[in-house]
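Quick bug: prephenate dehydratase output formatted oddly.
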Amino acid sequence: MTIIAFQGQPGAYSDLACRNAYPGAQTLPCETFEGAMEAVREGRADLAMLPPENSIAGRVSDMHALLPESGLSIIGEKFLRIEHCLLAPPGATIEGIKRIHSHPVALGQVRKLIAELGATAVVEYDTAGSAEIVEKLNNPEDAAVASSLAGELHHLQILRRNVEDFEHNTTRFYVMAREPLHLAPDTPDLMTTFVFNVRNVPAALYKAMGGFATNGVNMTKLESYMLNGSFTATQFLAEVDGHPDQPAMRHAFEELAFFSTEIKILGTYPADPYRLKQRRKNG
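Here's what came back:
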């Protein structure tokens, strides 16, 4: 049986992403992202399902810091539509809710619901953890915002589904493994994720990126973040369409190497059908 590590408690959205992507697999909850990565490195798990970004909250900064030195490879991506549920003990009514517990990011996504009910937002460390807390409180005035799976695991009723303020609330996950995928360069709909540091010379980033433009390589992501807490050392995470061994991509990486001090490919993997559908939708 495939074992998939994730950060959070059973019933967390990462747990739900594992179950949706790999039905029948066993999920392994871990306290931290690093703990989930370590479980894969040590062989206690086959894969890790870890979120680099959310369509509302943006990037997950801890993930960006951990990825380059994780020792793991990205072998896939999965997208999960985040559908928040208002969960409460059996017998509670939505009119009687006075406190709503959840992770701060989730609470920020249900402001309309909190205002509508005139409830107090109570910050907890995890969405699934908030469901566990509400189960233990067993008070009809306390509710949690979490997944339907968390409600099921903690014996809570769903007072209202889809309570998030924005319908596009979606989290992207990397599927990570000990070994990279070995894919043919002509495999369609591939993506490559990599990190690099540019040389400390004028216009280095502009020149480094020019190779992708002149070789017709589509770049879908470029993000910068501090390296080791330094204000002068910046690392970039980028994602492009294609395989590193395709001629156009190879030429682009050659130009990138000329203006960079380090390049590390984190994985080449198939684009998720959700991404391909969004591309067709947006033309």
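Actually, after a second look the formatting is fine. The first strand starts at residue 3 and ends at 7. Closing.
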